[in-house]
Structure formats: structure tokens, C-alpha cells
Amino acid sequence: MRTTTVIIGAGHAGLAMSRCLAERSIDHVVLERGEIANSWRTERWDSLRLLTPNWQSRLPGFGYEGEDPDGFRTMPETVDFIVCYARSIAAPVRAHTNVMSVRPRDDGYLVVTDRGDWNCRTVVLAAGACETARLLLNSKSGRFPNGVANSSGQVGRNLTDSVGFTVSGHVPALEGLPRHNADGVRGCVRAQAVSDDAIRDEIASTFRESGRIACPHTAVALRVLRELPAQERADREWVVVATAHPAKFDTVVEPIIGGTIAVPDTLAALLDQPAHAELIDARLDVLVTALKRGSQGRSR
Ligand SMILES: Cc1cc2nc3c(=O)[nH]c(=O)nc-3n(C[C@H](O)[C@H](O)[C@H](O)COP(=O)(O)OP(=O)(O)OC[C@H]3O[C@@H](n4cnc5c(N)ncnc54)[C@H](O)[C@@H]3O)c2cc1C
User: Fold this and answer.
1) d(Cα 150, Cα 102) in Å, to the nearest integer?
2) How far is the CA of 126 from the centre of ligand 1 (A)?
3) Are 270 and 290 in contact (CB under 8 A)?
4) Could you read off the pLDDT of 138-178 as tens digits, one per residue?
5) Best substitution site from 6, 12, 113 to test ligand 1's pocket, by max atoms within 8 Å of Cβ?
6) Which of residues 293 and 37 earns the better pLDDT score?
7) Closest CA to 90 of 25, 34, 15, 8
8) Which residue's CA lies nearest to atom 26 of ligand 1?
9) Cys-Cys link to 77, which of 73, 83, 205, 248 (CB 3.0-4.6 A)?
10) How far apart are CA 79 and CA 264, in angstroms?
11) Residue 56: CB within 6 Å of ligand 1?
């Protein structure tokens, strides 16, 4: 199959680009591994609302026309908004088409997908921050041994997938979501869910066995480690990273260990700061003035 431009991803960025190309009569397709607005359908949770107000959540040529410009969209509303946008611009989306790699050729690129390959002159990567990096890294060739656009070797090094369900943590709403990109990378990663009860039990067991107090996040990793097959545990060194101090979760952890957690000096100093709240207009200059007022108050 051949076209001028292949856009990878039917989220905000890919659809906005589709509209811009259509305006210039540039022939293109939008390849999407799931449905339009896939990230919002599969990598968010029901109670989430946008943190950007309606008036600000817009796409090229498509703004908010409702009666609540200062409201915040729910997830179904966000999906609807993006789907309506795709419809209004008649975006040429090919859904359920997973792009595996992008290979440079003399006259453009070969885009390899699980539904056939595309030849094109230009490619727009709009697959989200992590997936875009992954595609670049997957696109290795003799000319680009580290992957396309990665002569620095830095592509993908500093990314965190904020809702990646490959992380060993327990987010019930993310359980059982479909797996994407069966390109081998997932095969190197394993996910395990830890229930709230198991987390509580782990905090208690760790305290009993070692006197160490784990925060709930650390307890997730400790429980995963505890549940590894004995041989796998013994075969290599394991590192559990404690990402938070248990004093942050005193109301959860203290009843479990039956004692109080000593607050570290730095956290104690923060907690000693006077608390202050005031309502301000959602404008940068108002925020700056309020912050300056606050810091002057403290230095006095
Ligand atoms: C929890 C959360 C809350 C957020 N809240 C807000 C908010 O309130 N306001 C705001 O402005 N922004 C918010 N964002 C940020 C917003 O989601 C992103 O900025 C936006 O989605 C980026 O759009 P995008 O098109 O670049 O990527 P995405 O929306 O992620 O779209 C990428 C698309 O590419 C597809 N894709 C990926 N890999 C492939 C592949 N190999 N082959 C084919 N298709 C592929 C995906 O399925 C997806 O549909 C939030 C993000 C998160 C995680």
C-alpha cells in the first residue's frame, strides 16, 4: 500500500496533523492500533476528569461550544470529543492496525504493521511519548543501528509511562486491559497485581520479620518479591526500591504496625510550615502575585 504520509496514532496529535495535511490536500492515512482516542478509552479510569477546562481543551478548528466553558470533561465526554473531531475532519483512520516499525528507504519509509506494510514519503509519529520512543527504538537498520532518530542514544531513556499497566502495582481499574504491541518488548516485562489486603499483610509481615516499616508502595514490590518462585528468587540479586517514606502514610501504616512512625527531619520541617489556602483566579499573573505574597509572609 502506498500513500504520501503515514500518521501513526489517532489521538489528539495524529488527528490534528490529519486535519493540517487535509487542508493542504496531502494524501495520508492515520494508523491506529486500537480505536480513535485509544489512550483515553483504555489507559485512563472512569472517575477521571480532564484537568484542563472545557474552553482550553480544543483541537485545530474545533473548540468548545457548550454551556459550561469552565467545566471539566469526563472520560466518555473526552472520547466523544475526539471521535466527533475525527468525524468532522473525515480523518482517514485505519483502526486496529498496530505499527511495529518504521524503516527508512531511499524514497521514504516502509511502515510495517500487523495488517500489511505501507510505503510513504513521510511519517508522522503521534503514538504518544512512550510508544513513539518505542517505535523509534524498534526501527533499527544498518543505517540506523540504534533505531531511527537515535544517534544520541538518548531516545526513550527518560520516559515514564504514567499509566503503564506493566508496572507491578495494584490499580483495579487497569486490570485485564488488552495488551498492545506484541513486538517482543512486552515479553521482557511481567505484571503482577497486589491486592489492598496483601499490601496490609506485607507491611505487617515485613515489620514483624525485620523491624522495617514499608510504605504501601514499597510493600507492593516486597509482596511481588515474596511471591516469586523460590528458584527465581535465588537465581539473581533483587532490588526493591522504596519510593516514599512510610511517614507519608501514617494513617494507613501506623495501625498495621501498632506504633508511631518517626518523622524524618526534612519532612518534619515541611509539616511545620504554616498551611494556608486561598481561592484565586486561574491566571498565571494572579498565581505569581499570590506566591510572592506567600514567600514575603514567610520571610518576615
Ligand atoms: C492520566 C492522564 C490525564 C491527563 N489529563 C489531561 C488533561 O486534563 N488535559 C490535557 O490536555 N491532557 C491531559 N493528559 C495528557 C494527554 O493525554 C496527552 O497529552 C495527549 O493524549 C497526547 O496526545 P497524543 O495524540 O500525542 O497521544 P495519545 O493520545 O496517547 O495518542 C496516541 C495514539 O497512538 C496510538 N498508538 C500507539 N502506538 C501505536 C502503534 N504502534 N501503532 C498504531 N497506533 C499506536 C495509541 O493507541 C493512541 O491512540 C493526561 C494524560 C494522562 C495520562
Assistant:
1) 13
2) 9
3) no
4) 888 888 888 888 888 888 877 766 554 444 444 555 566 65
5) 12
6) 37
7) 15
8) 128
9) 73
10) 44
11) no
